[in-house]
Amino acid sequence: MGIDAEALARVDDVMATAIADGALPGGVVLVAKDGAIVWRKAYGHRAVAPEPVAMTVDTVFDVASLTKVMATATSIMLLSQRGHLSLSAHVTGHIPQYGQAQKGSTRLEHLLTHTAGLRPGTPLKEYRRGTASAIEHICTLPIEDEVGTRFRYSDVGYVVLGGIVERVSGKPLDVYAREEIFGPLEMSHTTFKPPAAWRERIAPQNQRNGEWIIGDAHDPRAHRLGGVAGHAGLFSTADDVARFCQMILNEGRIPGTSKQLLTPAHVHAMIQIPAGATHGRGMGFDVDTVYSSPRGHVFPIGTSFGHTGFTGTSLWISPPDNMFVILLSNRLHPDGKGHVVGLRRKLATTIATSIRRKVLTGLDVLARDDFDLLAKQKVGVITNHTGRDSEGRSVVTLLHDAPDVALTAIFSPEHGYRGQADGEVSDARDEATGVPIFSLYGETRRPTSAMLAGIDTLVFDIQDIGTRFYTYITTMGYAMEAAAEHGIRFVVLDRPNPIGGLRPAGPLADADKLGFTAYHPLPVRHGMTIGELAGLFNTERKIGVDLHVVKVEDWRRGMLFDATGLTWVNPSPNMRSLDAAILYPGIGLLEMTNLSVGRGTERPFEQFGAPWIDGPALADALNELALPGVHFAATRFTPTASRYAGETCHGVEIKLTDRYAYAPARTGLAIARTLKKQYGEKWDHENVRRLLANDAAMHAWQQAATLDELVDTWADQLASFERVRKQYLLYD
Questions:
Q1: Mean pLDDT computed over every residue of the chain
Q2: 244: closest CA among 306, 287, 288?
Q3: Please, what is the end-to-end C-alpha distance for the chain in angstroms?
Q4: Does residue 191 contact residue 181 with C-beta atoms inside 8 Å?
Q5: What is the CATH code of the structural domain delimited by 578-693?
Q6: How would residue 438 be classed by pLDDT, with cut points 50, 70 and 90?
Q7: What number does CATH give the domain 362-563?
């Protein structure tokens, strides 16, 4: 199935932690890929009060707002494809009185996408006399936004849609859905108003009027409507929800048959954001909104979709992976305080990263395409030991052996061609090919005219780590400038950002502090690939080089390096693990001071200390800050090189508890503030300025601003950068 079973089994840990933390009493997780269920397991208890009852995989759940897609939107699509209504028709064509209060322009598609301007809910008293009466009241309500202009998630719109299903079909929504959807899909344990015989299998919610809610809709409006509503009220099992998801993934085909329930066109309408829309909804499914937590960090943005339910249910479907994830829970039992937003995100990320992927680097793609981009070119390549394809072959070897390419020069960055040097590097010659190697970290850091003589195309292939002060990106910028000056084409063989490409973080470098560790006003963690940075540099810095980026294939912005299937090669001598690379944008801010950040040990950037630090006291102080994604433990170490070589250092090790939650600049400056408070003049805090490169942030942490106030000092400039950055992103 292309699944790493060991990685998928981490679902157990994710669920166990969430249950222990009180996020939910229990739940069922189901994962399907390539048409088969690959994970189906119950966790915890479906009831913990009045006495514990173990969760089972066939537990029946109140799926809450999954009703919207499983029953209501699908019913509307069936009626549309049978010619009984049009998705673009005005609501007044079915409910004439709906035209009151400036709602006359509302179409069915507006209700389906939550862009009808309706408020999220209406007073409970208006639902006591049934659906027809509730809709009469809704018709009189003024809209809160102009129709079609804003996404505002609304149960009210789906109450109206449920009423339209009944008016058009002549059958109540529950009957129509049972006969036309659940029956054909063989979803035998999916229904509104479950029978009493199911009671022992139904997961209870919290209490209503002193009684556990079991088999009755938890949603108060659906409850007042007799348990049947367009927005909530449906009950189902994980297996039944899976049959529905597989039908959607099959583009409407009923699983195990050749019969279509929905046409592909109607499925596409449900799952795709309409052309020109500014919201993130299909006509039923969530695609990219604030409610998209079940997507996690790895499933693709824009081409995967799903839905959530208030009771702790969710589904997420990823056609590019031929996969879906279902979480069913009764997170409101017993006291209404459960919370599963974070759990949904962690589950999806864990499951998505279990897929065995074959990410292709730009070098892989170039070689696969027979080096056509470089045909009949005299080529220079800027690279080091990281410039290898997925089979471990060097870019230098591949270019040298390519039949229609003339490799004439190699250029090496900081740490040299072999990636092992500390300090300046001299020119050399490659022993294997005889091609000269020009150092860009020696007498010059820019390619000179003599170095570039005779070169038609300059190729860049180095693994970056996603941090502003990691100097490989500056080497690229300088080389782009030199190539532009000499009329040389510049080709970037792109590589994944190993620490992910979702969220830039930290302050931007001030314009007057640019240099070799800050080529451009980037945030501390830039969230871009080397190819994306090249595009940004070329335009924003007006370099004007003839730039070509050979894109990575099958990499997604949320993927960390260990999800790519590529082999980790230490990008520099002290960058020895992915965790170190993730921590580096924060811990690296401290390395110009009189601390050891672990250089000369086996775990650089995963620990820091000094002979004069009290490790346990520092660890306690840092843990009291509750910094997201990290935990600190006292340690001691003796570096064999770099600062404090041969001396015992006391300090802390940093354990990543959530690699996506970690906030590097917040963490680094919180550590700085704590060190300054505890050690005063013993610690050379002024040198934080050298890599922070931002006066406002430097001033704020030195003045003991709160962490939130500190982050506020760069919030506006970071938001501005994200708007610029968006123009240059090459991947979803």
A1: 96
A2: 306
A3: 24
A4: no
A5: 3.90.1150.140
A6: very high
A7: 3.40.50.12170
Contact by Cβ (8 Å): 219, 159: no
Q: What are phi and psi of 24, to 5 degrees?
A: -165, 155
Closest to 365 (Cα-Cα) out of 548, 559, 560: 548
pLDDT above 70 (res 523): yes
pLDDT category at 1 given cuts 50, 70, 90 is: low
Radius of gyration of the chain (CA): 29
The single residue listed with the structure tokens 């610029």 is 724
Closest by alpha carbon to 715, among 702, 728, 697, 693? 697
| Residues ≥6 apart with Cβ < 8 Å to 717 | 507, 508
Say how far apart CA 355 and CA 6 lie, in whole Å.
Answer: 11
CB 643 within 8 A of CB 422: no
SS3 406: strand
Whether the Cβ atoms of residue 118 and residue 154 lie closer than 8 Å to each other: yes
CA distance 282 to 323: 19
Quote the crossing angle between the two packed helices 707-726 and 664-679, to the nearest 10°: 150
pLDDT digits (tens, 9 = 90+) for 481-510: 999 999 999 999 999 999 999 999 999 999
Residue in 495, 509, 431, 427 with CA at minimum distance from that of residue 466: 495
What is the residue extent of each domain of the chain? 5-352, 362-563, 578-693
- For residue 662, what pLDDT is reported? 97
Whether 692 and 507 have beta carbons less than 8 Å apart is answered as yes
DSSP code of residue 347: H
What is the second-level CATH architecture of the domain 5-352? 3-Layer(aba) Sandwich (3.40)
pLDDT tens string 168-204: 999 999 999 999 999 999 999 999 999 999 999 999 9
Query: In b/e form, how buried is each residue of 538-569, taking b as 16+ CB within 10 angstroms?
Result: beeeebebebbbbbbeebbbbbbbebbbbebe
Which pairing describes strands 207-208 and 505-508: parallel, antiparallel, or unpaired?
Answer: unpaired
Quick one: tokens of 167? Answer: 């008016």
pLDDT value at residue 215: 97
Of 476, 576, 467, 481, whose CA–CA distance to 522 is shortest?
467
- Tell me the pairing of strands 234-236 and 211-212: unpaired
| pTM of this structure | 0.89
Strand intervals (E) in 175-318? 191-192, 207-208, 211-212, 234-236, 305-309, 313-318
